[in-house]
Amino acid sequence: MSQLVVLGFDTEEQALEALKALRGLEKQGRIAFEDTAVVTHHTDGSFDVKNEASSASETGAAVGAVIGGLVTFMFPVAGIAVGALVGGGIGALMDKGVSGDFVKDVKNELAPGKSALFALVKGADRTAALAVLREFHGEVIQTTLDEDAEQQLRDALK
Predict the structure, then answer these.
(1) Long-range pairs for 24-27 at CB < 8 Å and ≥24 separation?
(2) Residue 96: what pLDDT?
(3) Is the pLDDT of residue 60 over 60?
(4) Other CB atoms closer than 10 Å to residue 70's CB: what's the count?
(5) Which member of 108, 112, 140, 153 has the greatest number of CB atoms within 10 A?
(6) How far apart are alpha carbons 84 and 127 in whole angstroms?
(7) Which residues are CB-contacts of 46 (< 8 A; sequence separation ≥ 6)?
């Protein structure tokens, strides 16, 4: 089961650096994400959301490309349209990413100048993730982690 972790940072750069560090763990196979996003509330009141493609979208696009290729081979004109529709449909059906409504709720509570890192984690080496996050000073906004894991995360971000 995936766990949602939302961390707050003083700047967008801090949130992006924390995500970059966690992505380094992902390359090592020590953490896996379903979806990630960084939301920034600028001091002028505007918001910026940097949302990476979720694995569901990537999988849907890949399956759509294969199906589109097969259909294109048999029916060239229809194949491109069918591939795009199938890929989008599969991505939507498989989508388990961070809820847009939840992002909006956190965005509304985020103080101007602050950023939040959203991570929907499929699995992680907790020790490695905590070690990486100790380099950053932030706060836990919300998680679906158990109390012990959440407290360890809070302690790591101090």
Answers:
(1) 24/132, 25/124, 25/125, 25/128, 25/129, 25/132
(2) 52
(3) no
(4) 13
(5) 153
(6) 41
(7) none
Residue 109 CB neighbours (<10 A): 12
For 39, residues 6+ apart whose C-beta sits below 8 A from its C-beta are 47, 48, 49, 50, 103, 106, 107, 110, 115, 116, 118
| Stated pTM of the model | 0.71
Cα distance between residue 110 and residue 141, in whole Å: 10
**Domains of the chain: residue spans and CATH:** 3-53+100-156 (3.40.1520), 56-93 (no CATH)
Residue closest to 142 by CA, chosen among 121, 124, 123, 116: 116
pLDDT tens-digit map of 127-158? 999 999 999 999 999 999 999 999 999 999 99
Tokens 């709720």: give the residue.
Answer: 105
What is the distance between the alpha carbons of residues 152 and 29, in angstroms, rounded to a whole number? 21
Residue with tokens 């591939």: 83
C-alpha Rg value of the chain to the nearest Å: 18
Taking the C-alpha atoms of residue 152 and residue 106, their distance in angstroms, rounded to an integer, is 22
